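step: validate -> pass
step: tokenize input -> pass
step: predict -> running
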Amino acid sequence: MWSPTASNSKKRDNITEMEVSSLCLMLSATLVVTPDRSQFFQYESINLNCEANSTGWSVKRNTSRKISEVCTHGWGEPAVGVILEIPTLPVTTGDEVALRCIFKEKGVKPTSNFSAAFYKNTVFIGDHPAGKLIFQAVSKSDEGFYGCGHPKNAKSQQSWLAVTDQPRVVCTPPPPLMSLSRLLCSILIFHTFTVIFIVCIYIYQRWARARANA
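step: predict -> pass
step: emit ->
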């Protein structure tokens, strides 16, 4: 478990909005973030780990910007803060996806109980009650950068919503139990042996009858 901290005492009352840029440094590795979102308030606990069978994998973060620097745009906002809860991993077309806008003030628990303004690629797309934007069946056209805002003019950072197509399922018909030519050949052989068997019985009966009369 890892909790972001700040060595600068002037930042302790600020709320940090942190874009998770951690990477799993292994081929075909996937980073799992818990809770499943890419923005967090300062001092909030998060868990970063690679998926199953991750022996020998390591999680690293981009340290080009240090958490001890003065709070600026991209790290946090004084007194109030807004983050957008959005899936960190790609979602599949047709899934129901919910984006939640979360607002927090100093000394007050985070809440989504407000009418939130949502933006896609910095363009306003509407106000949504209860701080939620819900896609009943998400599509590729919904992919993009999303952000949200609180009525107090506080806005979140933008986060990317990735949408992937559903994998194509190719149904291969099972091979036939027996080819037509083999089936016809088997029927012909069966009938031939049946006729031979009947003829043999007939000949035997005539031979037995003639022997009995001799």
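step: describe -> The chain has two domains: 9-164, 175-214.
step: cleanup -> pass
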